[in-house]
Specification:
By secondary structure, the chain is α+β, with helices and mostly antiparallel strands. The protein is 48% helix and 13% strand. The protein is built from 16 helices and 13 strands. It has a 3-stranded mixed β-sheet with strand order 6-3-13.
Length: 429
């Protein structure tokens, strides 16, 4: 396998001895053709991964059935195993495995198009998504009509593919399409995720007519304010107006915040240079910020009477002060420190899901103390897996400041050697 990667990585580029200015038209054409062939190889590799993932899932379930494990618990560890092997989070592994099952078991024409390199993984996922509300029979019919002739797929982008599938689905089962729309409306929500440079994406998933109306109102207000000579851009006015109306504040920058600052006295008061780590309220990390920026954030909030400061000190080496509890369950204080240490994300390899639970690295029933040193913050999925110890596919997680060893029930052990993410002062916002 490693040899195959080396062949692809070190392959001789046609006309590689030519300079960019001296490359002939034939060489340029060869490069374009090579790009296309390598892209098809990527699609074929995705099909191979799908087949392997499904085979792993089926074999694992068969093995666990022989062990007497209940049906609803079989295969729980496979998504994490797939994600770790592909360098992805458990959630991403679960999503890929779900799509792979459909390709292999229910949509043979889609899988063949993916294997032949005529269909990208993204467009293959669209086929799964847009037929998820249909019966297996109708899904198979759309699979054959859309992917049965590979020439039809040529030049078909994601939007046109989606429109084609929806057209066919509405003809086959209009009631299922109506139910899908009703279900989508019931899933309206608001979410927040980090963006670069201390920003966040505040997203509302709402019915189209409501979203269009809200945007139109903000746009009309921004145009009116802009007409009075306001120096802000239209987009800035719309964003500020949204925050002001939601929070009830006169100005967007007057929103109150609580600042959890993990620093040494030197960093906070004496101009230390250690960076901080900023977390917004959703427990998803924004990232490191310079010490001066952290001090200015605190100072600006205090000056505006809009910030509450809670200091949690670290030792000179940047480690959080030790905290221990005699209880089996982690108290809120230790949970808050775990959230700060892990920057609000799960300790699982490759997982960026929000931290939802605190658990022991060494299990409590094996003598592990309820302490900060033996604690780890986990996401919902990982916690549910660990709830079935010792049958859990992942038995031990490692703290962020030690070498991490994972012992899955199937396949290989994956190790992570990342250094501590909280090696310096941390600012939680």
């Amino acid at each position: 396998m490693a040899g195959l990667r080396e062949v692809l990585a070190d392959g001789i580029l046609p006309g590689a001895t030519d300079t960019a200015a001296a490359a002939s038209k034939e060489t340029l054409a060869a490069w374009v053709d090579l790009l296309g062939e390598v892209e098809k190889v990527k699609h074929t590799v995705a099909a191979v991964q799908a087949r392997i993932a499904v085979a792993l899932d089926e074999a694992t379930r068969a093995s666990e059935e022989k062990q007497g494990i209940r049906k609803e618990r079989r295969g729980r560890g496979v998504p994490s195993q797939v994600g770790a092997a592909m360098g992805q989070s458990p959630n991403t592994g679960a999503a890929f495995l779900g799509d792979a099952r459909v390709w292999v078991q229910e949509m043979p024409f889609t899988f063949e198009a993916l294997r032949a390199g005529a269909l990208s993984e993204w467009r293959a996922r669209i086929l799964v998504r847009e037929t998820s509300h249909l019966s297996a029979e109708h899904r198979a019919m759309i699979d054959e009509q859309v992917c049965g002739d590979l020439r039809v797929l040529a030049g078909l982008g994601g939007k046109r593919l989606t429109a084609r599938i929806k057209e066919l689905a509405s003809k086959l089962d209009v009631h299922a399409c109506v139910k899908r729309l009703a279900k989508a409306e019931s899933e309206r929500c608001v979410s927040v995720r980090p963006a670069p440079d201390l920003m966040v994406y505040l997203t509302a998933l709402v019915p189209m007519k409501q979203g269009v109306q809200a945007y139109a109102q903000l746009k009309a207000h921004a145009d009116a304010v802009k007409g009075t000579g306001d120096p802000r851009s239209g987009g800035q006015i719309m964003a500020d107006t949204l925050i002001e109306r939601v929070t009830g504040r006169d100005k967007a920058d007057q929103v109150p915040v609580t600042v959890n600052l993990l620093v040494s006295d030197e960093t906070l008061l004496a101009g230390g240079r250690g960076p901080g780590v900023l977390l917004e309220g959703s427990a998803a990390g924004v990232g490191a910020v310079p010490a001066q920026v952290a001090r200015e954030l605190v100072a600006a909030g205090v000056d505006a009477n809009a910030a509450w400061l809670r200091a949690i000190y670290v030792d000179p080496q940047g480690r959080l002060l030790a905290t221990t509890s005699t209880s089996r369950f982690f108290p809120d204080g230790i949970v808050n420190l775990l959230r700060a240490r892990q920057q609000g994300v799960c300790a699982t390899q490759y997982c960026d899901a929000p931290l939802r639970h605190a658990d022991h690295v060494v299990p409590h029933d094996e003598g592990g103390p309820t302490s900060l040193a033996n604690g780890q913050g986990l996401c919902q999925r990982t916690e549910l897996q660990l709830a079935t110890r010792p049958q859990s596919p992942i038995h031990v997680f490692q703290r962020a400041d030690q070498r991490k060893h994972r012992r899955p029930r199937v396949g290989r052990t994956h190790a992570d050697t990342r250094e501590a993410s909280a090696s310096g002062p941390t600012l939680n916002l």
